[in-house]
Amino acid sequence: MSQNIYDNPDFFAGYATLPRSAEGLDGAPEWAAMQELLPSLTGKSVIDLGCGYGWFCRWARAQGAARVTGFDLSEKMLAKAASMTSDSEITYLRADLETLSLPATKSDVIYSSLALHYVHDIPALFATLYQALVPGGNLVFSAEHPIYTAPVIQNWCTDSAGNKAWPVNQYQQEGIRLSNWFADGVEKQHRKLSTWINMLIAAGFEIRGINEWGPSAEQIAANPALDEEKERPMIFLLSARKPE
């Protein structure tokens, strides 16, 4: 079973303070770029993996989606999403993405924001998503960029005086990375960008677009904290399609 860090009270409380939690989709600086990768949702059956508060689920319905299903492992997230939603065509379900099961060829669009880097068995998940999509269906997701996940923070290089200098950047060594973010021992999976792409291709997907996202000058001016993101991508956005 995946690590359920979002039900950790400290983590959940910390996550609630983020702009993307408090302000919804508009609080995510990459949201405008994500929208460019999404197809029309009118009349579509949509899935949101790692739905959190359900912001995207509600937005998808506002865009004309016929039905939306949001999956999350966290009971706290699902309870929050349910409390913010009054729409019979939105369903929230608890599921572990490591063992997710979906009906075949029933979904038009599968979306995920910053959730898939927690998943260990990505090939199995991509195979599940591929069979769940109708021919011509779309998978659009974001994940932490491997340049961001690569460093192993626990192992530090030292300078000639023996002082800690910088974290070891082990880009080529894929696997679990631990971070202390709102709670200690948060597990994420580091995999190279080529691995992400090749796993999608192996599952049968066509790659439609990829964006190694960075903030615009206007976004940095409005939110100076984003300045560090201009030097290296923290996340990537990807659009893939099941051939017709």
From TrEMBL:
**What CDD domains does this protein's entry cite?**
AdoMet_MTases
Gene3D superfamilies given for it? Answer: Vaccinia Virus protein VP39 (3.40.50.150)
Q: Name one GO molecular function term.
A: S-adenosylmethionine-dependent methyltransferase activity
Going by the UniProt record, its keywords in alphabetical order are:
Methyltransferase, Transferase
List the Pfam families.
Methyltransf_11
Specify the Methyltransferase type domain's residue ranges. 48-141
Q: What lineage is this protein's organism placed in? A: Bacteria, Pseudomonadati, Pseudomonadota, Gammaproteobacteria, Enterobacterales
The question of whether Plastid is a record keyword is answered with: no
Q: Could you confirm whether the keyword Transferase appears in this record?
A: yes
Q: This chain belongs to which protein, by name?
A: Class I SAM-dependent methyltransferase
GO annotation (BP), single: methylation
